[in-house]
Every structure is written in structure tokens, then in C-alpha cells.
Design goal:
alpha/beta; 10 strands; TIM Barrel; single chain; two-stranded antiparallel ribbon; eight-stranded parallel beta sheet; binds NADP nicotinamide-adenine-dinucleotide phosphate
Length: about 280
């Protein structure tokens, strides 16, 4: 097995130009810790960083990018507009604030964080189109969108939808969403790709991990990659950041995939009452 040190940025596959393994930063609200984790990840080879207005850490993420010995243009940087800022003017204004905090001229991907609260498909997406046309965002993304929201957004947007970011891992394989995204050429980005540790206790995942002498975290990340899904695990210590990076050297075989695809247990880690999967209008 290759150690994280042997894996370079170039070894990370890309989906439509986006590195398929990135660093999530939710709960990285301690300035020094956040900055250090982002810098550590970038210097290890990560080239995709995921943040959000709602994480209250865009400035610390920006500092990590500034501190790392990696050029800005080599980094795929994504942020998300908070659900309270999805009115037309607020999208335009708060995105500029995000760029300022991040210390960049543009982000590579800007997501609608959730299609709830101040989300109004026509208004919100018109503002995203404007930011895209002005070059402040290189790609338009959506997050927590169900198929019906995707169909509506595809109709309304001039810009293509680049990615839908949703929870995805072997306990929540999102087969229907993956198929809808495929149909529209939309990348799926998996959040909570480790189910925040819940899947470390699943016997089948433990079995595959033991067989390959790797961790359960690596198994989940390799499973996502095998499905063509990009993953953004959040990790703090160098040890966890490196463990997740090592997943790039893990190739699951047909038997592993069959076992993981056959899991019957379904588990959703992020399940707020306002989650759009709870309503069908
Ligand atoms: P996750 O990545 O599934 O799990 C993170 C947890 O796993 C942390 O407690 C982390 O601990 C631990 N961990 C990381 N690597 C590990 C390893 N190799 N071995 C053991 N434990 C490990 O969950 P998440 O943070 O919910 O999701 C990832 C990212 O997705 C977020 O940070 C955020 O960027 C994004 N996200 C987006 C949405 C959305 O609505 N769009 C929702 C949720 C999350 P340490 O921190 O101590 O390393």
C-alpha cells in the first residue's frame, strides 16, 4: 500500500477538472486549527477545498490557502451561499464578501447550500447566472437538491449546473440522484463521506478494510471514487488528513463492491426537519 507521502496531487483523479478528493471544513471554526488543516492538506497534495458562508471560517480557509506553498490557480475552491442569503441582491452582495474573506478574485464553484428558506429558484439562480457571467464564480453548484429541484434549475439557468453536493456513502448510495445527475452531466459531490464515523462500525466495511489492511475511512472513500463520486471528508489532524489521502491508492475489487453495494442498512447523518427529502412538493 502506498503511504500518503508517495501520492502526489497528480495522482488524484479529476471529474470534469475537479479533484475527486477534497478537504471538507465544516466545524473548523478555530482559526489556527482551520488554517493549519487547510495548509497541511494542500501541502500533502489535496487541491480541492470545500467551505461555506455558514461555516464561519472562510477567512481562516483563505489564510490556509495563502500560507500553503501551492499556487492559487492550482486549487479548486468551493463555497456555498447560506440559506438566509439566497435573495437576488443578497447572493450578489454576500458572494463578494465571501471572495474578500477567502482572499481570492473568484471561486471555482459556488453552491446554493440548500433549496430552502430564502431560496427562490428564479431569483436565486438569476443571481448565480450573473456571477458566472461576470467571472466571479467559475462554476454553478447546488447542494441538497432533490431531482425535482435539479429539473427546475436546469430549465432556469443559462450556466450549466456543475455539481450537486449531497450526503453520500455506502450507507446512503443515492442511486436515483446519481442517475439524474448523470443524465444532466452534473457531478455528484459527497458530503459526510465517512458518515461522520458511523460507517466505521459496519461489519462489512470492517471486513473489506481488514482484507486490504486499510482503514474503514479509506474503504468508503475508495467506494465513492469507484462510483464516480467526488468526496470531501473533513479531517483535522495530519494523521486523518493523510489517512484519507491514502485512499487514492486503494482499488476495490468486484467482490468488495458487491459486498458494499449489498448493504441493507440505510443511514442519513444530516437530516434536519427542513431537509427537502421530507417533502415532495
Ligand atoms: P465526514 O467527513 O463524514 O466526517 C468527519 C468526521 O470524521 C470528523 O469527526 C473527523 O475527525 C473524522 N475523520 C476524518 N477522517 C478520519 C479518518 N481517516 N479516520 C477517523 N476519523 C476521521 O463528515 P462531515 O464533516 O459532515 O462532511 C464532510 C464535509 O462535507 C464537511 O466538512 C463540509 O465541508 C461538507 N458538508 C456539506 C453539507 C451540505 O449541506 N452541503 C453538509 C455536511 C457537510 P477530525 O476532524 O478529528 O479529523
Amino acid at each position: 500500500m502506498d503511504s500518503a507521502d508517495d501520492i502526489t496531487a497528480g495522482d488524484c483523479p479529476r471529474a470534469n477538472g475537479m479533484p475527486m478528493l477534497g478537504l471538507g471544513t465544516w466545524q473548523h471554526t478555530d482559526p489556527d486549527q482551520c488554517t493549519r488543516s487547510v495548509k497541511t492538506a494542500l501541502e500533502m497534495g489535496y487541491r480541492h477545498i470545500d467551505t461555506a458562508q455558514g461555516y464561519d471560517n472562510e477567512a481562516f480557509v483563505g489564510q490556509g490557502i495563502a500560507d500553503a506553498a501551492v499556487d492559487r490557480e492550482d486549487i479548486f475552491l468551493a463555497t456555498k451561499v447560506a440559506t438566509s442569503n439566497l435573495g437576488y441582491d443578497d447572493v450578489l452582495e454576500t458572494t463578494r464578501e465571501s471572495l474578500e474573506k477567502l482572499g481570492v478574485d473568484a471561486v471555482d464553484l459556488l453552491y446554493v447550500h440548500w433549496p430552502v428558506d430564502s431560496y427562490n429558484a428564479e431569483e436565486t439562480l438569476a443571481a448565480f447566472d450573473e456571477l458566472y457571467a461576470d467571472g466571479l464564480i467559475h462554476n454553478v453548484g447546488v447542494s441538497n437538491f432533490e431531482p425535482r429541484h435539479i429539473e427546475e434549475a436546469v430549465e432556469l439557468l443559462d450556466a450549466p449546473i456543475f455539481a450537486n453536493q449531497v450526503e453520500c456513502h455506502p450507507l446512503l448510495p443515492q442511486e436515483e440522484l446519481r442517475a439524474v445527475c448523470d443524465e444532466h452531466d452534473i457531478e455528484l459531490v459527497a458530503y459526510s463521506p465517512l458518515a461522520r464515523g458511523t460507517l466505521f462500525e459496519v461489519p462489512e466495511i470492517q471486513h473489506v478494510a481488514e482484507t486490504h489492511d486499510v482503514t474503514e475511512a479509506q474503504v468508503s472513500l475508495a467506494w465513492l471514487r469507484a462510483k464516480g463520486v467526488t468526496a470531501i471528508p473533513k479531517a483535522t489532524s495530519e494523521e486523518h488528513i493523510a489517512d484519507n489521502w491514502s485512499s487514492l491508492a486503494l482499488e476495490l475489487d468486484g467482490g468488495d463492491l458487491e459486498m458494499l453495494d449489498g448493504l441493507e442498512k440505510v443511514h442519513r447523518e444530516v437530516d434536519p426537519e427542513f431537509g427537502p427529502w421530507h417533502t415532495d412538493e
